[in-house]
Amino acid sequence: MNFCVYCHERIEQPLTWSTWLTVKKNNVLCISCTGKLEMISGKRCKVCSRAWSSSICLDCQQWRELGDNIERNYSIFHYNETICEMITQWKFRGDYLLREMFRNELKSAFEKQFANNAASLTVIPIPLSESRMQERGFNQSLALAEMLDAPIKQVLRRKSGEKQAKKNRKARLKRDNPFSITEPLKQAALIVDDIYTTGTTVRQAAQQLKFHGCPEVYSLTIARS
Ligand SMILES: [Zn+2]
Ligand SMILES: [Zn+2]
């Protein structure tokens, strides 16, 4: 018998043997929880995945004018109340195993969306600061990255907050890039994270990667807010 990893209700098994085989393998969420998730479908901005009727949203047009440094972000779900609660439960309450909620959709989006360059993509997690890492106990971005069948390189480092602020307040006021690179990456990169909000984080990471010779940067995120 299976129980929903999120709400702990029993997962009803479908009646036929063949559907049971497929569902058994995949189902970690009950029908009710699955039903509350909204996948992004229909027209979307081809750069950031926002539901959008024409090809590139206004935000991304502005990024393009500044010389955008990401090729494309693909998000799976709309950021609605349910996914917000799920991510909160997972990330801020330290319920690591809840990453299973996203495994199937994440893998399938990776295979479908990045199939052409999947073989050559290196997966790059967004690092947490040390203090965040201590609060949370795990890095959600790395937890997602590990579910993909691709090599991971942790080449980004987050500059530590306080010391940086004291040393370099001017730069911080200018919203200096919080990331540095531990080793240049010469292959195309796929950044994986939970939420794409303004797109600033992924672009700051991409800026560092590209500055050090990375040819292309994509991103794959669970939700688009
Ligand atoms: Zn449920
Ligand atoms: Zn866009």
Overview of the structural elements:
This protein has helices at 17-26, 31-36, 58-65, 81-91, 100-113, 130-136, 140-145, 161-167, 169-173, 200-211; strands at 72-78, 122-125, 156-158, 179-181, 189-196, 217-224. It has 225 residues and is of the alpha/beta class. The strands form 2 sheets. Strands 1-6-5-2 form a 4-stranded parallel β-sheet. Mean pLDDT is 88; it is low at 168-174. Helices cover 38% and strands 15% of the residues. The protein has 2 domains: 1-36, no CATH class; 38-224, Rossmann fold. Residues 45, 47-48, 50, 56-57, 59-60 line the site of one zinc ion. Belongs to the ComF/GntX family. It comes from Oceanobacillus sojae.
Short description:
This protein is an alpha/beta fold.
Q: What is the helix content?
A: 25-40%
Which structural class fits the helix and strand makeup? Answer: alpha/beta
Overall pLDDT level: 88
SSE string: HHHEHHEHHEHHEEHE
CA-based shape: globular
How many domains?
Answer: 2
- What is the CATH domain class of the largest domain? Alpha Beta
Based on the coordinates given, report the CATH architecture of the largest domain.
Answer: 3-Layer(aba) Sandwich
User: Do you know the CATH topology of the largest domain?
Assistant: Rossmann fold
Number of helices: 10
Unreliable residue runs: 168-174
The total count of strands amounts to: 6
Query: If strands are numbered along the chain, what order do they take across the biggest sheet?
Result: 1-6-5-2
Spatial separation of the terminal alpha carbons = 35 Å
